[in-house]
Design a protein that fits this description.
Radius of gyration of chain C: 26 Å
CATH class of one domain in chain A: Alpha Beta
Helix content of chain C: over 70%
Number of helices of chain C: 13
Helix content of chain A: 25-40%
Strand order of the largest sheet of chain A: 6-7-8-3-9-10-12-11
Oligomer: heterotrimer
Largest sheet of chain C: 2 strands, antiparallel
Strand content of chain A: 15-25%
Shape of chain C: globular
CATH topology of one domain in chain A: Rossmann fold
Bound molecules: adenosine-5'-triphosphate, adenosine-5'-diphosphate, iron/sulfur cluster, magnesium ion
Radius of gyration of chain A: 21 Å
Number of domains of chain C: 1
Number of helices of chain A: 10
Distance between the termini of chain C: 35 Å
Largest sheet of chain A: 8 strands, mixed
Chains: A alpha/beta (342), B alpha/beta (438), C mainly alpha (327)
Chain lengths: 342, 438, 327
């Protein structure tokens, strides 16, 4: 990736404590995002995308624990105090949620929400500066200045989401985590928002982690894509290359089962994502993988790098030296029952 | 499918309005609140054995249309004929009898099963409701049969589970089992896969296709997802703000979309193909409030191809100014806003508006402001609708051409509700272009 | 497979599911639940086996031809002493438990029998019936409970001979509005659930929907308010007894009545006639309250807190894979 990454995550583990044991929602994840870069994070429901997004910002519930490194501009956020994290959130680290209505204070005018946000982090601003900065950011999102003094319920869903984005951007964070920012929106409005997100890097130079389960959105708005399965990133690389030639069987199957305008016949991945308290041994995808080999359930796969900036977590791509003799033989197996699905 | 196929459901002039409760004051003075026109004068035929897709953005009235066809929501006017009976006229009692023949699958599988009933109880209950089983063992046997059919096998493993123990896809399978256990002829599927993971969607759609073959079902498939609709449907009806704007065979609609809205929808879908990108000239804004729809064509405020006859009005001028102000710097906005003032007359659906200059601005100043807006973006279709701009007595008067409501007319293999495909409207527009007062 | 065993199995599954939250209750909630249940159970045993557990009858003032001493100190012969009427304090406590539980049990049964169906129907069908019942119930709810109970006890006292029944009806009327309100409000939210519309789409009649789809999802809260109301009802009953409108002394022992008789004793240093019935009241009320709050915290998902297993990153991971590889 590019020169000096804004965010570097190394061997991050984020586990939830539950009555039945630890849920390994994120289990050894590493990634990097450079300034002005957009990384798309995709995967099925429950693969740990939101946990990773929140974990990076230190927003995990009680009972969850983290381990590893989240380096933001060289500082490790794992283990940072609540106070320090709070100070960073906003001016440095921004977050956009899926449901904008629940995040905007319904009793406050848009103007006051901007004022509060700005004053909290940049106390020296004058009223005129606050207004200028807010209107400028809102204008870029297509929200007219005439509506600056209205309440959240007076806006439509798409406008609220744009206001949310503006509210996150008005502090000019260097890193923005957007968790399914368009899932609740209509296609045309979604496309409008995607345009805005794609323009972020030109306008603000923001590093963006875009979480979604829609591969189309990644293809549209991201430079890089990371595919997540059962708490791990199984493949990562430039979006264009990964989509053109997926290396990991899961990425390939996921692409095949996505229904698009070009779909001629339906395809699906057998089985369901595993529970993350006792994930499958070896490669977590082995119970569903069409290419399973003898080594897969026995040994944790080792990450391999290809073509400079692609990496894969799958025995099909080596390293050969680590595969025991005979490990490369395929395993035949009976069909998985239809109903064992997500 | 042959065009002469038997008609199963015939909808004519159907309107379903929801009355919004007015404020306390409104009710006090006996004013009735406005109505949301969720379904606004729709006619369509559902042919036996076909899959008709009802596609549109949220709030376009798809669900309401589906529910009205099943008699779950009372129609405001119009008729829905199902197997020769007008279900809008049937009593609740007679409708209950008919429900064996028509079923619905809802969008949210998590919410459509009673959390206090086991899967076997839930799926078997329709048999008991309609007195179609002698005893519990018979119900169970039949339930086992359908569960197996929808892929919830081995059935013993699912029969006595509660919905909370099942995944989304499994729940949707159970909901489908419950819907087909009565052997219906019509199944309304209201976004059956939109809450499911992409890896599960294909499986549920596959199941629905297989069931359609086996049970001779007719589907009304409600969705906002053009990609699944393309794969799944024989015919497609595109809905916008309570109306059908385009309807026809799937291939025709996808290959050569006619209505500007259909064209926009198709171009806006993010496809997992990095070579294809969404164009920048997408319709702006969002679906307007169905309680106060635009004059003329409902899609006009967002339509990139709108012209003289489409029904331009005062609210469009307000939007135009707001768009201008959003793009312009703060000083420019402050100055123009001060001159225009609150402009209350721009909040109503009217084809004429009078603006009074504020802060010492004259009518001519306002006219100059509009002129600047026009030179800034001369291709904005808004200007085609303006009939006259004149400044009189310090005020600015703007008139627009009268709205013409578009009609659903045949255009090749499809039917479209857009003036671009209506010779009469095109002629009228040409005449108006000549009649514009400079 | 024998159908009987299958049915039995299914029933066990259903039961286990119903009681799962209780089994999973942890910490303070679990403590409250069990302490409350133990105390309540103790009183139930007292009431059920009163004739066996009590040395004398509640109104017995003599044995073998000897009259008991008046106001005898606790001790020999009368463990908790005797009252001014020479009755045994322990006997009054034990039989008092019987009266309290009878009245409260009856009142609960009546209250549920009236309030729950009314709330269900009113909430589900809405309209004029709903508005009427809500108005009526709110009016009753606004009335001071004790005053309402006194008026009803007074009105019924002349026509109904059983004092237990009079008290139970009086208390029922005080608590019906509560069941009604809780059930009705819950029905109104459940009514909008998708599965209720689904049932309608299946062709179910309104009463079938109420019975099979609404009822079970609404009654879950009822045990909690019923238990909490029971605690409150004990207080109302004893208050009625204290001012003389409760169960008449000839018809049964009643702690509130006993306390009222003991008020004058205290001045002369006679503490046992008042202390023990007073303690009984406090203990039963606390027991029921603990039980109710414990139930609330276990059943109510918002308050529910389960024991989580702490995350341990160093716990050994699963290594069954090696074996798989050999096979
Ligand atoms: N607060 C929590 N306590 C315990 N487990 C949790 C908690 N939140 C999430 N999990 C579990 O962690 C795993 C990952 O969840 P996460 O929400 O990160 O997935 P996701 O990829 O964002 O899914 P989706 O696409 O549905 O949003 C899941 O197994 C989930 O059940
Ligand atoms: N029960 C209701 N009461 C009032 N308005 C409703 C109700 N249901 C839907 N609407 C309104 O009717 C319009 C169409 O809604 P709906 O049929 O749900 O559309 P869709 O299914 O296309 O999203 C929307 O404006 C919606 O807000
Ligand atoms: S490691 Fe083996 S099981 Fe896992 S994805 Fe690769 S081939 Fe499939
Ligand atoms: S009638 Fe056609 S051209 Fe005119 S606004 Fe509507 S869609 Fe656009
Ligand atoms: Mg998520
Ligand atoms: Mg809908």
């Amino acid at each position: 990736m590019s020169a000096e990454p804004v965010l570097t995550v190394r061997d991050l583990r984020l586990w939830y404590g539950t009555p039945r044991g630890s849920v390994r929602a994120v289990d050894g994840v590493s990634l990097e995002i450079g300034a002005g870069q957009t990384l798309g994070l995709v995967g099925e429901s429950g693969s740990g995308k939101s946990t990773l997004g929140r974990g990076i910002l230190g927003l995990l519930p009680e009972g969850a624990k983290s381990d590893g490194e989240v380096l933001y501009k060289g500082r490790n956020l794992v283990g940072a105090s609540h106070r320090e994290l709070r100070r960073l959130r906003g001016p440095e680290l921004g977050l956009i949620f899926q449901e904008p209505m629940t995040r905007l204070d319904p009793l406050m005018r848009i103007e006051d929400q901007f004022r509060e946000t700005l004053e909290q982090h940049e106390s020296k601003l004058t009223d005129a500066e606050i207004r200028r900065r807010s209107l400028d950011t809102l204008g870029r999102m297509g929200i007219p200045p005439t509506r600056f003094r209205q309440y959240p319920h007076e806006f439509s869903g798409g406008m609220r989401q744009r206001i949310m984005i503006a509210l996150a951007l008005v502090l000019r964070p260097s890193l923005l985590v957007a968790d399914e920012p368009t899932t609740a929106l209509d296609v045309i409005v979604e496309a409008q928002i995607l345009r805005i997100l794609a323009d972020l890097k030109e306008n603000f130079g923001t590093a963006l982690l875009l979480i979604t389960h829609n591969l189309g959105i990644v293809a549209e708005a991201c430079d890089h894509v990371a595919v997540m399965y059962a708490g791990q990133i199984v493949e990562e690389g430039p979006a264009r290359d990964v989509f053109a030639e997926p290396k990991h069987p899961y990425t390939r199957e996921l692409l095949r089962s996505t229904i698009s305008l070009d779909t001629r016949e339906l395809h699906s991945i057998p089985g369901a994502p595993p529970n993350l308290i006792t994930p499958p041994t070896g490669c977590h995808f082995h119970p569903r993988c069409p290419d399973i080999m003898r080594v897969c359930p026995a040994k944790d796969p080792i990450e391999t790098r290809h073509d400079g900036d692609r990496r894969v977590l799958c025995w099909l791509h080596g390293p050969e030296s680590e595969i025991p003799p005979g490990g490369g033989e395929p395993i035949e197996r009976e069909r998985i029952a239809v109903a064992e699905e997500a | 499918m042959s065009a002469s196929a038997e008609t199963l459901v015939s909808v004519r002039g159907l309107k379903t309005y929801y009355s919004i409760r007015g404020s306390f004051l409104d009710r006090l003075v006996g004013r009735t609140g406005a109505a949301v026109r969720a379904v606004d004068d729709i006619s369509l035929d559902l042919r036996k054995g076909e899959v008709l897709g009802l596609v549109g953005e949220s709030g376009s009235g798809k669900t309401t249309l589906g529910r009205t066809i099943l008699g779950l929501v009372p129609a405001t006017s119009g008729t829905v004929e199902f197997e020769g009976k007008d279900i809008t006229k049937l009593s609740e009692h007679d409708l209950r009898e008919l429900r064996r023949r028509m079923q619905i699958v809802f969008q949210d599988p998590h919410a459509s099963l009673n959390p206090a009933m086991t899967i076997a109880q839930a799926v078997g209950h329709p048999l008991q409701i309609h007195g179609l089983a002698q005893d519990k063992e018979q119900v169970r046997a039949r339930v086992a049969e359908v569960l197996d059919r929808v892929g919830l096998s081995p059935v013993e493993q699912f029969m006595d589970k509660y919905p909370s123990d099942l995944s989304g896809g499994q729940k949707q399978r159970a909901v489908i089992a419950r819907a087909i256990i009565l052997n219906p002829v019509l199944l309304v599927a209201d976004e059956p896969v939109s809450m499911l993971d992409m890896s599960v969607r294909a499986k549920i759609l596959e199941l629905m296709l297989a069931l359609k073959r086996d049970f001779d079902l007719t589907y009304l498939y409600v969705t906002h997802d053009l990609a699944t609709a393309k794969f799944f449907c024989d015919r497609i009806a595109i809905m916008y703000l309570g109306r059908i704007v385009e309807i026809g065979p799937s291939e025709a609609i996808y290959e050569d979309p006619k209505h500007p809205y259909t064209q926009a929808l198709l171009r806006a879908i993010p496809e997992p193909d990095p070579r294809r990108t969404i164009p920048r000239d997408l319709p702006r804004g969002e679906v307007p409030d169905a309680a106060k729809p635009p004059l003329g064509c409902h899609f006009r405020p967002r339509c990139p191809r709108a012209f003289e006859v489409c029904g331009w009005e005062a609210r469009d001028l307000k939007e135009l100014l707001e768009r201008r102000w959003a793009e312009m710097g703060e000083e420019g906005f402050d100055a123009e806003r001060a001159a225009v003032g609150p402009a209350e007359s721009l909040n109503e659906p009217a084809t004429t508006a009078k603006l009074h200059g504020h802060g010492g601005a004259s009518g001519a100043d306002l006219a100059g402001l509009l002129e600047k807006a026009r030179t800034g973006d001369p291709d904005d279709p808004f200007w085609t609708g303006v009939k006259r701009i004149a400044s009189e007595n310090g005020a600015l008067e703007v008139d627009w051409f009268d709205p013409v409501d578009p009609r659903l007319l045949p255009a090749g293999p499809v039917e479209v509700e857009c003036h671009l495909y209506d010779e009469a409207a095109l002629a009228e527009a040409a005449e108006r272009r000549g009649a514009r007062i400079p | 497979m024998a159908t009987a065993t299958v049915r039995a199995q299914r029933r066990t599954v259903a039961l286990r599911r119903a009681f799962a939250p209780i089994a999973e209750a942890r910490g303070f909630a679990r403590w409250m639940l069990f302490a409350g249940a133990a105390i309540t159970l103790m009183f139930v045993i007292l009431a059920a086996f009163a004739p066996l557990l009590s040395p004398y009858a509640f109104d017995q003032y003599q044995a073998n031809g000897h009259r008991f001493a008046q106001l005898a100190r606790p001790g020999h012969g009368h463990i908790l002493g005797t009252t001014v009427q020479s009755t045994d304090v322990l006997a009054r406590i034990v039989y008092g438990a019987q009266t309290e539980l009878e009245v409260v049990g009856l009142a609960l049964a009546f209250g549920l029998a009236v309030g729950v169906p009314l709330g269900l129907v009113s909430g589900y069908f809405g309209g004029i019936l709903d508005r009427g019942s809500v108005f009526f119930m709110d009016a009753m709810f606004a009335f001071p409970p004790l005053l309402l109970a006194i008026i009803i006890a007074f009105l019924l006292g002349s026509s109904v001979s059983s004092g237990v029944l009079v008290a139970a009806i009086a208390i029922t009327i005080v608590y019906v509005p509560q069941y009604f309100r809780v059930v009705r409000n819950h029905v109104i939210s459940v009514r909008e659930e998708q599965y209720v519309e689904a049932a309608r789409a299946l062709g179910a009649k309104p009463f079938t929907i109420l019975r099979r789809y609404v009822f079970f999802n609404v009654v879950q809260n009822v045990p909690v308010i019923a238990t909490l109301n029971a605690a409150d009802a004990v207080l109302t009953l004893t208050a009625l007894g204290f001012i003389g409108y409760g169960v008449q002394p000839t018809q049964g022992a009643e702690w509130g009545y006993d306390v009222s008789r003991a008020v004058t004793d205290v001045a002369s240093g006679i503490w046992w006639t008042g202390l023990f019935p007073g303690l009984a009241i406090v203990l039963l009320v606390s027991g029921l309250t603990l039980l109710g709050e414990g139930l609330n915290e276990t059943i109510n998902p918002v308050l529910r807190r389960r024991a989580i297993r702490q995350v341990d990153f160093d716990a050994p991971s699963f290594d069954a894979g090696a074996e798989f590889y050999e096979a």
